[in-house]
Specification:
Length: 892
């Protein structure tokens, strides 16, 4: 076998879905909890599904010691059942079954952080997607929904807190220092939503009055010493509950709702029914340890997991191919939640821009690589590899297109019908589409292609103005590149929100032949459904400038040949804030691409005054929200610039971008200083939108100012670092110092600041993650520096947060250094993927994605990348998670 043709396990196909042979009505579980050895008793009442072609009783299990198996009260012998790998099969079982299973598991040895595992002396579960099978033998699939009653027993001193899903119905003491807690979940749920937490924890709790008048107990559980960091998470939870009541008419359906924070977690958080388990990153916050970005992230993730209570828990997925049914919908809901909390038009635009930047930088790249897949995939080898930006972020864009097409009220009607039809069911993406179509009377048949076709569509634009007839034609043509397994694509149903601007930058009333009912509007959603369509606008007195894809109304690439003057008009005047920002990004990208090419030819670099003046005018426009100006002044990332090239030169892109930043600073130093000085936020730290906006612009100005290598700007950052009253300002100053290319004396001061930062926060894990992240992404950090940091006593690969802070950030967010010409970055990558594969395959597979698109780089780098991929592929006992990623990359 050649190393570049690594064989992966057989793929699971969506079209081969078979309903389960047995349904499970009730589950009664008893846990005798211990870090080293936990006994799990599982009693299931099951009945045959006569509609299924699967006649045997089939259960899944992994890393389990089977202690006892009883069917309808009779203990089964080994001859009565078959275990083949991770499948337990009982043939000739009766139609009505009570199955009793006792298993033994070892939480302290479970480094995968899936199933039941140990974390700092506590016991935690993570069952999505297929972790429940690591706890007990079970038909571990999302379409098997049951009601659960759970009894937890443990040593009271070691595990004083015992939590599970739903409502606490009994608790008390047992003999020999043990105690118990009994929990009942009144709603049917799939096994992936099962949860338990046992350990030494403390909580902040409040009684919250729901809209109906009923009161619910809200709790945020954390390790001792972290109780002062829970208020923002609690506030975010209360806001989430109220928003879902008001926006969608959905009320909390339990007597209590709990959040538990743990530092050992593979993901951001998990929506287990009534017992949400969170990565500490998305719970713990106060002004001394959390930045504005952290505060916003906590609010968003708390909202996301709470909203899953209905979009994911009450209505769940029939199978894992339908994952975006819950995730894409819930991401859309959390995006709207965050935008609604800001409230203002510009504030909503800032949130929208932030979301689209992630989509373009990460998801568009995924769509163009070997792991490209539809929003509803057709196959997978390992489901954990499909918790992707395509499922989440592109899935959210698909939901947003429903919202754009149907409007606010129309979308709400569709949601109401969806819950009315499917509450308590495991359903498909097509069921959601049917609810939207039936509630609105719209034909959404073609819209299904957004679920079944991978790739990022491109929409090209050709315009024609007839001055005599006063007509303006916009011809839109769509195409979509080939993706793995899908060479040709059918036309999508693409909503294009648009307007027309006159020479003064004002919106023109729109009179379109195809949309007579909306005559005179200045914003219109035209619908591209054919391969090519022309839309005619009448009563256009002078040739306009089109503003297309407003608010990024569809996840497509818009190819339109704007002049700099037209982009300048949009940049300065567009009434749609997103497209105003978009015009600036196009202006900047055009120059960055040109400069990258100039570098490759050895010519002298220069940046035109027109562009610099456009940025100056925006920076000094006090009528604009500071957060919006910060986004307008932020250059496209190196990853975004790379997307404009068929062959990527990371060093040239980095040099070009740094040149632009330095040139902007040279010309706008006085303006940047003014922005820095006038956007201070003295007094007590406030994580409100207005204060965050000021800090964002101030700290962007500081980062620019340090591109000017003189004593005054360095001292400005150094002073902010020493005197900052909050983590946002302190970290921004440290980042600026870390990236400052100054004198030897200044570099020593920067290193001293890094050491001081570590000393001040060495007991705060989340802050130390930031310390590693700053160094991983610094322009001066090379592979040897990363290896040095990996030897630091505070670094460990076993904790996903710590691994991500250093290793992932270096490989994914420091392209000029990771893609070193000697291939040393790829050699490090291979070593770490192999090491993580033994510890935590899910985390390893995510790191493996760093070399997805290795064929997009120059031949010399490709050779090093291929060797690294082959080294991983040749590893013995390679997990399904990593094998799938590497094999697809090598086969690309």
């Amino acid at each position: 076998m050649r190393n570049d043709t690594v064989i992966t396990p057989q793929a699971i196909l969506r079209q081969e879905y078979v309903a389960p042979g047995y349904w499970v009505d009730t589950v009664e579980m008893g846990f005798d909890l211990d870090l080293k050895s936990t006994l799990v008793a599982n009693r299931m009442v099951m009945r045959r599904n006569h509609a299924s072609t699967e006649k045997d009783l089939v259960l899944s299990g992994e890393s389990l010691k089977l202690v006892q198996l009883r069917l309808n009260g009779v203990k089964l012998k080994k001859a009565d059942y078959q275990i083949d790998g991770e499948t337990l099969r009982i043939s000739n079982a009766p139609d009505e079954v009570t199955l009793e299973i006792t298993t033994q598991i070892q939480p302290s040895k479970n480094t995968s952080l899936s199933g039941l595992y140990a974390s700092k002396g506590n016991l935690i579960t993570q069952c999505e997607a297929e972790g429940f099978r690591k706890i007990t033998w079970f038909p571990d699939r999302p379409d098997v929904m049951a009601k659960y009653t759970v009894m937890l027993r443990a040593d009271k001193k070691k595990f004083p807190v015992l939590l599970s899903n739903g409502n606490l119905i009994d608790e008390g003491d047992l003999d020999d220092g043990r105690h118990f807690a009994k929990w009942e979940d009144p709603f049917k749920k799939p096994s992936y939503l099962f949860a338990l937490v046992a350990g030494t924890l403390v909580c902040q709790e409040e009684k919250f009055k729901l809209k109906s008048g009923r009161k619910a107990l809200l709790q945020v559980w954390v390790e001792e010493g972290n109780l002062d960091k829970t208020q923002h998470a609690m506030d975010s939870l209360k806001k989430s509950i109220r928003w879902d009541e008001e926006r969608f008419g959905l009320e909390l359906d339990l007597d209590r709702f709990m959040i538990v924070a743990t530092g050992d977690f593979n993901m951001g958080a998990m929506e287990n029914k009534g017992l949400n388990i969170f990565n500490t990153k998305y719970v713990l916050a106060n002004s001394s340890i959390a930045t504005d970005i952290d505060y916003a992230g906590i609010e968003s993730v708390v909202g996301h997991e709470y909203f899953h209570n209905w979009t994911g828990n009450r209505v769940t997925c029939r199978d894992w191919f339908q994952l975006s049914l819950k995730e894409g919908l819930t991401v859309f809901r959390d995006q709207e939640f965050s935008a609604d909390l800001v409230g203002t038009t510009t504030g909503r635009a800032v949130k929208r821009i932030e979301d689209v930047r992630v989509l373009r930088q990460v998801q568009f790249s995924e769509d163009a690589g070997p792991m490209a897949h539809p929003v509803r995939p057709d196959s997978f080898v390992e489901i954990n590899n499909f918790y992707t930006v395509t499922i989440y972020e592109k899935g959210a864009e698909v939901v947003r297109m429903y919202y754009t097409l149907l409007g606010h009220d129309g979308f709400r009607k569709g949601m109401d019908l969806y819950f009315e039809r499917h509450d308590g069911q495991a359903v498909e993406c097509d069921d959601f589409r049917a609810a939207m179509a039936d509630s609105s009377g719209r034909d959404l048949t073609q819209f299904e292609r957004w679920y079944s076709q991978a790739g990022t569509p491109r929409v090209s634009v050709v315009t024609a103005y007839d001055a005599e007839a006063q007509t303006y034609d916009i011809k839109l043509t769509q195409s979509c590149p080939a993706t793995p397994g899908q060479e040709k694509k059918l036309p999508f149903h693409i909503p294009v929100a648009m307007g027309l601007l006159d020479a003064e930058g004002k919106d023109i009333p729109l009179y379109c032949d195809d949309y007579p009912a909306q005559a005179g509007a200045t914003n219109l959603v035209i619908e591209l459904t054919a391969a090519s369509q022309t839309f005619r606008f009448n009563k256009v007195a002078s040739e306009p400038v089109p503003s297309l894809l407003r608010n990024f109304s569809a996840p497509v690439v818009l190819d339109i040949d704007y002049t700099d003057e037209e982009l300048g008009l949009l940049f300065a005047n567009d009434s749609d804030p997103f497209n105003r920002w978009e015009a600036g990004q196009r202006l900047a990208t055009r120059r960055l691409v040109k400069l990258t090419k100039v570098l490759q030819t050895g010519e002298e670099l220069s940046l035109d005054d027109w562009f610099i003046n456009a940025l100056r005018n925006t920076l000094n426009d006090e009528s604009l929200d500071p957060a919006f100006r910060e986004l307008m002044l932020t250059l496209p990332s190196e990853a975004m610039i790379a997307e404009a090239f068929d062959v990527v030169d990371p060093q040239a892109i980095h040099t070009a971008r740094q040149f632009v930043r330095a040139t902007i600073t040279r010309h706008l130093k006085a303006d940047l200083l003014h922005a820095y000085e006038t956007h201070q936020t003295p007094g007590k730290y406030r994580p409100d939108a207005a204060s965050m906006a000021k800090r964002s612009l101030k700290n962007l100005a500081l980062s620019y100012l340090l591109e000017w290598a003189d004593e005054s700007t360095f001292d400005l950052a150094h002073l902010q670092f020493k005197e900052a009253a909050n983590m946002t300002d302190r970290l921004a100053a440290l980042a600026a110092l870390t990236n400052f290319n100054g004198t030897e004396k200044q570099q020593k001061k920067s290193e001293k600041a890094l050491r001081r930062f570590f000393k001040d926060f060495k007991k705060e894990d989340l802050v130390i993650d930031k310390w590693f992240m700053l160094q991983a992404t610094a322009h001066t950090t090379d592979v040897e520096k990363v290896r040095e940091l990996m030897q630091h006593p505070a670094f460990t690969l076993t904790n996903p947060n710590r691994a991500r802070s250093l290793v992932f950030n270096f490989c994914n967010a420091n392209p000029s250094r990771f893609h070193a010409a000697d291939g040393s970055g790829y050699a490090l990558w291979a070593e770490l993927v192999i090491a993580l594969n033994k510890i935590n395959p899910q985390v390893a597979a995510r790191l493996a994605r760093s070399l997805d698109r290795w064929k997009k780089y120059p031949v010399g780098l490709q050779a090093h990348m291929k060797l690294a991929l082959q080294k991983v592929a040749a590893t013995k006992k390679l997990s399904k998670d990593v094998a799938e990623v590497v094999s697809k990359a090598l086969a690309a």
